[in-house]
């Protein structure tokens, strides 16, 4: 029978219930204290107790002294952890959002809130997968210590910084007592983006205000007159024609399409030769998305697995920062089907993929897009030179790096 089930059964006895309630706090303190002892501490304590007992039973003075010494060492080590840790700790980040390669700094400020001097300790905190630690000197009354350190930002990531813990322990590492002081702070390392000039925004401008063959009851471009039907808006009745024909006539209009940009980013691992191509693709998606937001175009950002929020610069870049590769099939063809099924009245679709995507895949993706939707593909190939080509109905822009995106898009507009 496990100790947990035994405790549960004993807790049903009235007398035991009272005893457990009265000893809850001491048991909690004992459990916490036992958690301070590391593996080496348990080995030293057990070895000392066994050696002490064996030396007494056998009358072996040296063995007895060795046991007493080991137990004494453990007791002294335990003394290093006793007492309050009267700290007030603050974790500061220079910025919560930086771009890949930008400097990111963090600072930890520790204040002594006691009315007496406190002993030295150690401050530890996780930063992503790494561990940062520094020695905290003894602080006088109301004393303060600040430590600054840099956070690596070489790669796009969301880095968890913290929580900050103060640690007391002995020099031998037998006993260790840690207290947590702060929450976890998130640092967003956004992908690097480039600014696209207005003329290099890739088909964005020549779609603005373009009329379509879709007939609508209310717009700007007049199309024709027809007889009134129940439910028609009476504000669109053409009274002059009504007076001439004797029948209620209403105006019809051609729908004016406002630029709606759909950026479809493949995050299938098989669509990229390596991780550098994926990072360039994400940077390209961010650059195109930011250009659309700046020009106040309607923007939809999606992958072959989900739709990402893109109502603001921060929202767009945060979503791209969290993006990871995924396995599966479909790639750009799946994105094309999603656009045709879910994104109505889009004027431009931009498909972004890696070098392993073939011309056949791009042609098939263009074939499933709605008729009349202009299609552009940004194909990232680290070993190729920047170029523009046409595959079916898709204009393909090949770029080796995101720095070539603006120039190649300008070339595609010629």
Polypeptide structure, described:
Keywords: Membrane, Transmembrane, Transmembrane helix. The chain crosses the membrane at residues 29-52, 58-82. With 414 residues, this protein is of the alpha/beta class. It folds into four domains: 17-79, no CATH class; 87-190, Immunoglobulin-like, CATH 2.60.40.10; 198-205 and 259-413, Rossmann fold (3-Layer(aba) Sandwich), CATH 3.40.50; 212-257, no CATH class. Helix content is 33%, strand content 29%. The protein is built from eleven helices and 20 strands. The strands form five sheets. It has a seven-stranded mixed beta sheet with strand order 16-15-14-17-18-20-19, sandwiched between helices. It has a four-stranded antiparallel beta sheet with strand order 5-4-8-9. Helix 7 (275-294) links the parallel strand 14 and strand 15. Helix 7 (275-294) runs antiparallel to helix 8 (313-321). The chain starts with a helix and ends with a helix.
Key phrases:
Rossmann fold, 4 domains, 7-stranded mixed sheet, 20 strands, 33% helix, transmembrane, transmembrane helix, membrane, DUF58 domain-containing protein
């Amino acid at each position: 029978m496990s100790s947990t089930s035994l405790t549960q059964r004993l807790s049903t006895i009235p007398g035991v219930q009272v005893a457990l309630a009265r000893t809850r706090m001491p048991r909690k303190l004992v459990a916490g204290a036992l958690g301070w002892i590391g593996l080496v501490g348990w080995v030293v304590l057990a070895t000392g107790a066994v050696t002490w007992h064996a030396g007494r039973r056998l009358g072996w003075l040296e063995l007895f002294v060795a046991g007493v010494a080991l137990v004494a060492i453990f007791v002294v080590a335990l003394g290093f952890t006793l007492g309050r840790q009267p700290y007030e700790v603050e974790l500061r980040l220079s910025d919560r959002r930086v771009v890949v390669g930008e400097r990111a700094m963090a600072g930890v400020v520790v204040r002594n809130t006691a009315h007496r001097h406190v002993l030295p300790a150690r401050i530890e905190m996780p930063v992503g997968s790494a561990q940062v630690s520094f020695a905290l000197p003894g602080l006088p009354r109301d004393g303060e210590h600040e430590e600054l350190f840099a956070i690596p930002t070489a790669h796009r990531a969301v880095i968890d910084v913290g929580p900050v813990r103060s640690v007391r322990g002995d020099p031998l590492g037998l006993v260790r007592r840690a207290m947590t002081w702060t929450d976890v702070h998130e640092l967003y390392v956004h992908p690097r983006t480039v600014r696209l000039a207005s003329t290099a925004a890739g088909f964005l401008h020549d779609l603005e205000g373009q009329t379509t063959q879709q007939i609508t009851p209310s717009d700007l471009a007049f199309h024709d007159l027809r007889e009134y039907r129940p439910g028609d808006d009476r504000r669109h009745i053409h009274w002059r024609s009504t007076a001439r024909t004797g029948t209620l006539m209403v105006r019809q209009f051609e729908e004016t399409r406002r630029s709606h940009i759909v950026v479809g980013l493949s995050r299938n691992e098989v669509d990229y030769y390596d991780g550098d191509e994926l990072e360039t693709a994400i940077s390209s998606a961010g650059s195109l998305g930011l250009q659309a937001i700046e020009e106040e175009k309607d923007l939809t950002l999606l992958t072959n697995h989900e739709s990402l929020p893109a109502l603001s610069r921060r929202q767009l870049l945060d979503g791209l920062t969290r993006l990871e590769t995924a396995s599966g099939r479909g790639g750009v063809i799946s994105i094309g089907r999603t656009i045709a099924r879910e994104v109505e009245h889009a004027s431009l679709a931009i498909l972004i993929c890696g070098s392993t995507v073939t011309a056949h895949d791009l042609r098939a993706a263009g074939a499933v897009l709605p008729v009349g939707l202009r299609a552009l593909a940004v194909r990232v190939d680290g070993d190729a030179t920047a170029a523009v080509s046409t595959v079916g109905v898709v204009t393909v822009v090949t770029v080796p790096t995101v720095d070539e995106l603006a120039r190649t898009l300008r070339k595609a507009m010629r």
